[in-house]
């Protein structure tokens, strides 16, 4: 999957599609998911053009990586779920069912989330 600058997150970063940021830094933007799966469901995206978690891990600068992980903790604190717990999901590639070719994490919490994956 190659980076597509017309993806929805790129459009949000360029201000072409409005969002309601809950967190922003020089390297990170976070906003509520439009179809939340839990009381807290925030999308966290780097401002750089990274296709996936793999791409981000290989190409992002140390400052971008640090800012991204700092954002996770700050957002969890902001929403009051740092102590009770939360889940981070990054869908990567076809088998991971990645739909948007821009790296992003889903930070989900605010209730008990159950098992990670069903036992097939």
UniProtKB/TrEMBL annotation:
Q: Return the CDD domains for the record.
A: PKCI_related
The UniProt entry, under InterPro entries, shows: Histidine_triad_CS, Histidine_triad_HIT, HIT-like, HIT-like_sf
What positions does UniProt annotate as the active site of this protein? Answer: 104 (tele-amp-histidine intermediate)
Instruction: Please name the SUPFAM superfamilies in this protein's record.
Output: HIT-like
Q: Which GO terms describe its molecular function?
A: catalytic activity
Q: Where is this motif: Histidine triad motif?
A: 102-106
Pfam families with a match to the protein in the record: HIT (PF01230)
What superkingdom heads the lineage? Bacteria
Q: What region holds the HIT domain? A: 8-120
PROSITE patterns linked: HIT_1 (PS00892), HIT_2 (PS51084)
Write down the PANTHER family for this protein, in alphabetical order: HISTIDINE TRIAD HIT PROTEIN
State what protein this is by name. Answer: Histidine triad nucleotide-binding protein
